Amino acid sequence: MKKILIIDDDPDLQEGQKVFLEARGYEVLTAGGAAEGLEILRRFTPNLILVDLMMEHYDAGFVFCAKVRDNPELAEVPIIMQTAARDKLGFTPDSYDEKARSWMKADRILTKPVPLEDLLNTIEQYLAE
Amino acid sequence: MQETLRVLVVDDEEGMREGMRRVLERNSYQVDLAEDGEEAIKLLKANPYDLALIDLKMPGIDGFEVTRYIKETLGRQTVIVIVSALATVEAAMEVTRQGAFDFLVKPFLPKDLKQVVQRAVSQRRLILEREKYLTELASERNLSSQLINSMHEGVVVLNINREPVLMNPKAESFLSVRYQPWLTLKELALSEEIQKNIDGILDSESPRDEATIRWEQVGERMLEIRVNPYLRDGENAGVIVILDDVTRQWQAEQDKTRFISMVAHELKSPIAAIINYINIILTGMFDGQADKIHEMMERSKIRGEALLDLIRDLLFLNQSEAGKVEKSIERLDLKAVLRDQLEFFQAQADRSGITLTLEAREAEYPVRMDRKDLDRITMNLISNGIKYNRNGGSLSLIMRQDDESVAVEARDTGIGMSAEEMKGLFAEFYRIKNPHTSGIPGTGLGLATVKRIIGEYNGSIRVDSRLGEGSTFTVILPRA
Asked: What rounded mean pLDDT belongs to chain B?
């Protein structure tokens, strides 16, 4: 069974995606913030991470990604970032190119609300690689 | 010029002096006579003469010396006519060089004298007019330089060769440059865009009186930089650059943009959660599990209601910021208001087993406020004290007062806050995010609004807290 870690400070989005992905046959763990997420990663190595951008701080998601990438054991785990904040905050997922990827450290940015089918397709695509 | 002109006649021959006086007085001039150079100098020191008729050859101080004295020592604009029998070209040239205006050769007829004096008088009038004009010009210059120096905008004037020729103190301070005559445009360190605007004006074939305006950050400041053509008779004469400090407007705009993006985020989050639940239900994957669907519907309802609360708070914020909320200030008893509110919140407190107490020794605690504002403050204090409490905890409201103020302390036994978490507590949309708070609904506008309202009444709000032990909010309001 493939394992997914969901990190989101919105308990409902967290819960909703958890029940949906569990019903699709994934094992899902959840965390309410970047710090809690990093804590879980000490004992749990997922096949993929879903992370929110604005949590404890407006850029908590980016900081989280950078920390995950610094850990050699987790460096290859695909990270999908979900955010409701877009261009207004200076982050434009649409202009997400190679250069941006090098500092953002996330593999993909999806804009909330993410349609479930899109989420599933994206997850399956990264897990197939 | 109608006033009498004053003439000094200097001649060592008495007949000559008297003759000239007669002719001149007949022509309405005021005449003084001097029989030698020394007396002439005495008179010249004491009186301003428009005209001096000076004999060149005198014993002692001669005509040359008197002329030099008038021009060099006194620096006067007196028109000098030399009267002499030494009719040589050399002598004429010499006195002209000394500053004499004309030369009258002895002997002369009265009509010759009249002619020479008339010429000298028109010269004198020209000089007087020029002096008047120069004085006016000087005071005008003085006025405009005072005006420019007292402006709160910075002013830089460039000539046609793009050289700064004028800079007021404000411009010096905005650009951190001291003005000096050989200052260059480059040293002003204006941006490329501004330089382009300057070039655009100076290189234009048909200059138009139109300014270009740009906002640029210069050091700590945001400056509005206006580049205006300086036109003289419709021709380009240079450029006037006006610098205005718009830092405060700029910051307000920045704050507004940030606020709007935060609002957008806060509005989107609950909708994203609701749509997510609906989408899950719509997949049909839980069709057989009514309890799961019910749970998701219940959560969606809560999020929907929270969204309504947020919109209500935002509208309130907008109205009160726009000054649209009418206040009716009245004398209110804070104790009575708190008692009412505690009654209202009793049911909610009971659900979490929280004990509510009000400790107020005196009969009343009067304040002068709008009832809605006071309700908003007290509701927020009590509701937070319940929401962020632990099951079976307590919320105590402790009142005190002195002659000037009324205070209420709301002490809870809740989850508390770390020093780090308290930092932005009164900022808009600030919500502490940790596992304890994640299930608690809130808009992130409550305390920000409360603080603003309290500020409107010159009161204050303070928080003391310890993580895991509880928080105490103290509100102080002026006593009625």
From this structure: 87
CATH architecture of B6-142: 3-Layer(aba) Sandwich (3.40)
Residue among B433, B434, B436 with most chain A CBs within 10 A, to mutate? B433
Q: Chain B partners of A9 at a C-beta cutoff of 8 Å?
A: 433, 438
Task: Note the CATH number of domain A3-128.
Answer: 3.40.50.2300
Residue with tokens 């010249």: B44
Minimum mean pLDDT range among A25-29, B421-425, B436-440: B436-440
CB of A39 within 8 Å of any CB in chain B?
A: no
Token reading at B21:
């006086």
- Mean pLDDT, rounded, for B7-29: 91
Query: Which of B265, B279, B285 lies closest to A115 in CB terms?
Result: B279
Nearest residue on chain A to B298, alpha-carbon basis:
A12
- The C-alpha atoms of residue B318 and residue B301 are separated, in whole angstroms, by 26
The answer to whether B297 and A10 are in contact (CB under 8 A) is no
Q: Is 0.80 topped by the overall pTM?
A: no
Pull the structure tokens for residue A1.
Answer: 């069974």
Which of B296, B264, B279, B262 shows the shortest CA–CA distance to B431?
B262
Pairing label, strands B154-159, B164-167:
antiparallel
Q: For residue B1, what pLDDT band results from cuts at 50, 70 and 90?
A: very low
What percentage of chain B exceeds 90 in pLDDT? 39
Select the CATH number that applies to the domain covering B151-245 from these four: 3.30.450.20, 3.40.50.12780, 2.60.40.10, 3.40.50.1360: 3.30.450.20
Question: How much is the pLDDT for B108?
Answer: 87
What is residue A105's predicted lDDT score, i.e. its pLDDT?
Answer: 75
Query: How far does the CA of residue B440 sit from the closest CA of chain A (Å)?
Result: 10
Q: Which of A16, A112, A116 sits opposite B268 (nearest CB)?
A: A112
CATH 3.30.565.10 is held by the domain B329-478: yes
